Structure formats: C-alpha cells, structure tokens
Amino acid sequence: MATYPLYALRTLALYAQGLNKATHPASPGLDELYAAVERIGCVQIDTLQMVQRSHYLALWSRLGRYDPADFDRLIYDPAERRLFEGWQHAASIIPLADYRYQIPYQRNRREQPSDWYIRWLEEIADPDLVPRVLEHVRQNGAVRAADFEYHGPRRSSWWDWKPAKVALEFLFAFGELMITNRVKFQRVYDLSERVRPAWVELQEPSAEERDRFWIEQGVKALGVCTPGQAADYSYRKRGQAKAPLAALLQQGTLVEIQGELANGAETLLVHKEHLPRLEQAADGSLAAKRTTFLSPFDSLFWARGRDMQLWNFHKTLECYVPAPKRIWGYFCLPILHHDRLVGRFDPKLERSSGTLHLRALYLEPGIAPEDELVADVAAAMRDFMAFHQAKELVIERSQPEEFGARLARRI
After folding, report:
1. Is 0.85 surpassed by the pTM of this model?
2. Helix (H), strand (E), coil (C) string for the chain
3. How many angstroms separate the CA atoms of 14 and 289, rounded?
4. Given CA atoms 300, 306, 309, 315 in this order, what sign does their dihedral have?
5. What contacts 305, CB < 8 A, 6 or more positions away?
6. Which of 187, 254, 273, 322 is the most buried (most CB within 10 A)?
7. pLDDT tens-digit profile of 304-343?
8. Which residues contact 341 (CB under 8 A, 6 or more apart)?
9. Distance CA 383, CA 123 (A)
10. Does residue 282 contact residue 5 with C-beta atoms inside 8 Å?
C-alpha cells in the first residue's frame, strides 16, 4: 500500500473543510453560507466576542466578507430557515436537514433525566416548574429567560441561572422548545412545532443509524483522520465509534490508507468520495492556496491531535488561563497560509472607534516574513477588517518585529 505524503494529507483536510481555494465568492449569499455549514456538518457557537463570535468567523474563514445578518436569516427567519441551534459539537448551528438525528438524544433526555436535572429539581423544590414553563410558552408565545422574574437567592451552581432559565434549557434539550431568535445574543425560545419548518423530517433513526451518519459525516468533513478523530469530530466517545466505523469500512464507504504524519506513518481513514481528491493532492493538481485566519473553535481543530499531526502547530485557547500564565494571548486566531499554519494573533476590536488591535502577532519558529506571505496575510487582514467594519489596524507587539512592521506598511 502506497504511503501518501504529508502535503497531500494537509491539502485534502483543507479541501474537505472548504479552506483550500485562494479566492472566494465576491458576495456570498444564503446558498453559499448554507453550503459552507452543510460541508462541515455544523458550526460551533461561542459567546466570546473579542472580534465577531466564533460561528460568524468560521464562515468568514471559508467565504471571506459576507453579511452576518444573512447567516442569522438562515437560522432565525421563518421564510429562510434552513439551520437551527442544537447540541452536536457542543452548542452548534446545524442544517435542519439533519434534525432527525437529534431526536434520539432529545428522547433520551426526556425519558432518562440526568442526575443534574434531578439534583436541580431537588434544589429548587419545585417539580412542577418545567411543565409550568412549557405551558407558559404554549399559551403566551416565544420568551426569553429575562421575561421571567426571579427575586430568590443567588446560587453557585448552574452558572447562577435563575430557575426559569434552567427550565427553558432543559426543555430545549428535551426537544420541546427550539431557539426561534436571538436578542442581544439572548436566546428566544418557542415551541418546536412553531419553529421547525413543516418540511423537516421527523422519523427517528435508530441509535446505530444515527452513529453511522455522524461518523461518516465526521470522516468526510475531516478529509483524512484516525478512527478516534472521527469520533472526536461528532462529539462521540471514541468507544462509540468502533461499531459504526467497522460497518462503514465493511461496506466500502470508508477506506483505509497509509499516510505520513508529522510524527510518522499511520493507518488513516478517508471517505470513498475523497479518494480522487487525495490522488489529485498527491500529484499536485489539487493544491491549498488560501490565506485566512481561523477561530480557535474552528472545526479544523475539533479532532484531537490533528493540529500537531498535520501541521506541527499547537493550537491553544488561553482565555480561561490567568493572564500571567498566558503564552500567546487571550483569544489567538491561527494564520493559515496555503497548506501551513504559520502563525497566530490575539485581536481585540474597539468597536466605538473602528480600530482593530492586534495585541500580539506571531510567526511560528522557522517561518520567515517573505514577500508572498506578508502580501497574502495583508490581503486577508484587509478583508478581515472590512468584515468587522474596522478602519484602522494597530499592531501592539510582533514577533518577529519585522513581520508586524511590514504587515502594517502593506495595510
């Protein structure tokens, strides 16, 4: 069996994630935004907003500048709704075409409540609160947690949520409620049957069918991966992936190959539809030419170990690390240049003045600030600034200094 070189594996991984093309649509619309989400399976939601929130960044990384209001329309506008908020890779935005694969999880949550749920009911000593909140939504329409008054004590558990907010979140996990809108990023809940379009398929798959679907989707979205990484991508336990992987290999949907990773050769998985692309990547007819910046929550990093195996790059998120112990910065965005992760920067958007601050900018060891790299990063940075409606760029610190100076001149 031939061993595919590292550059071919990188190229296929970037192709599968929609991160390989040098150019992007001049004005991405609803169809392009939906296709980008469908390609990677789902987009992780996160609340941090040093710049745009992560789910908006994920689409910018693949499509360039677009109108975030269009993305919101796909999730929250009844006339355009093709996506929904659910639990997949953590809290995620998912195609409604995949909604049925959430149903076993929802049913299990309803029929076999978690220990957390039972402890919470005991804590508030109000077993009727959840059905009362559901009935309130049924009778009064969509609500936010803020619509429920609470004058009780603050608690240390449940992020200090008031009881009605916890009830809404459980009803959301049970599938009784869906997120119909966001107001200042606060969830607005309504009955699922009032949110979900009539065309959404509701036939519940078996647990085996669901796991095969998610594992196949994960391998396809990763391009190339180890068996354990196929589970990581869909937020499954690695043991849960063994049976669906065996079935998919037996039927020929997945294929084993030998690949040369940064830490040595290994047996890897590829979806059969990607085999021609892998051959093209190996002979150079498919290349990675994009320069862009990636959220630390980007799906490129969901499978454990790929940052080091494919790129010899340690992706970090240090927002939860005490400031004196941070090495890189609060919310560093990796820099993708062609098929390499060449650096990172820690941004903060000053919205009132339209200034984008790079509190730190780094190139990886051994990466020189050559003309092509500087020019491509500058072009990506101009688009990044336009996406954020930023008019000025301030580079506070750069390593090496030359990189920051040359980038600033280009901007």
Report:
1. yes
2. CCEECHHHHHHHHHHHCCCCCCCCCCCCCHHHHHHHHHHHCCEECCCCCCCCCHHHHHHHHHHCCCCHHHHHHHHHCCCCCCEEEEEECEEEEEEHHHHHHHHHHHHHHHHCCCHHHHHHHHHHCCCCHHHHHHHHHHHHCCECHHHCCCCCCCCCCHHHCCHHHHHHHHHHHHCCEEEEEEECCEEEEEEHHHHCCCCCCCCCCCHHHHHHHHHHHHHHHHCCECHHHHHHHCCCCHHHHHHHHHHHHHCCCEEEEEEEECCEEEEEEEEHHHHHHHHHHHHCCCCCCCEEECCCCCHHHCCCCHHHHHHCCCCCCCCCCCHHHCCCCCCCEEEEECCEEEEEEEEEEECCCCEEEEEEEEECCCCCCCHHHHHHHHHHHHHHHHHCCCCEEEECCEECHHHHHHHHHHC
3. 10
4. positive
5. 226, 229
6. 254
7. 999 999 999 999 998 889 888 999 999 999 999 999 999 9
8. 307, 311, 313, 315, 334, 335, 364
9. 50
10. yes
In single-letter form, the type of residue at position 41 comes to G
341 bridge partner residues: 336
Spatial separation of the C-alpha atoms in residues 287 and 227, rounded to whole Å: 25
Task: Confirm if 343 and 380 have CB atoms less than 8 A apart.
Answer: no
> How far apart are alpha carbons 71 and 75 in whole angstroms?
7
Over residues 258-286, the pLDDT tens digits come to 999 988 889 999 999 999 999 999 999 99
Reading the block at residue 103, the tokens are 């149903």
The phi, psi pair for 5, rounded to 5°, reads: -75, 160
Q: Order of strands across the sheet with 83-88?
A: 43-44, 90-95, 83-88
Q: How far is CA 320 from the centre of its chain?
A: 18
Are the CB atoms for 224 and 269 separated by under 8 Å? Answer: yes
